[in-house]
Amino acid sequence: MPPTDRIREHAGQGAATTVAAHRSRRRLRADRARQLADLLRRQLLTGAFLDGALPHESTLAADYRTSRNTVRQALDLLRTEGLVERHPGVGTLVVARKYPHGLDRLMGLAETLREHGRVTNEVRSMGPVPAPAPVAERLRLPTGADVLYIERLRRLNGLPLSLDLTYVPLDIGAALLAADLEHTDVFRLLEAATELPLGHAEITLEAVAADAHSAAVLQAPQGAAVLMLERLTHLSDGRPVDLEFIRFRGDRITMSGLLHRTV
Fold it and tell me: Which pTM does this prediction carry?
């Protein structure tokens, strides 16, 4: 191979190595930014920044032993989530918070969030409907049996928080037709109607894209991720009495629980 060709080949290999190294550094910084954002998010959610302002970028870089570029990238992630805003000359300010929803106990939303403000319900739809097959199966009802369907928009301190779709067997749900659903959790009404305490619930939690209807009701961008909680609640005697599909605004709620390991 002529010397000039060897020089060109070597130069090409060097350029490829430089590009690969640059990409590797970018990936590493993105990984570190994601890790830092997770740590800062936790502090935001637990009220660690009492004055509503995050430390300066240089302070965060020193505290977490990282670069200011990584700090800026982490703050950009939190800004995209709507948790902070960055103001030139002022700094990074907390502009939103998430409310904790515990998964350790079976409670209604008003019971769960009573320490954080007032939960109100807007009943958007309510009445008997034939149970769709999956609903009848989950509630152990004959196919086509009537159930009480309730759709509620739930607000915390006036802000839309969740859209709840609820199915209740009609022999129990009939007692809820005249109840104050705007100010009372369904759980309390079910216990009063059946004269039995609730026992347990099976839950599934996943992220789904907000459809046009849900997005409009929750005042969230269409296609935004929402937390969807499916919950089948049973009375203490084991009878399933309440099947719910609850869409939470993911930017306003955080789920938490205490898990024990059994061997």
Answer: 0.73
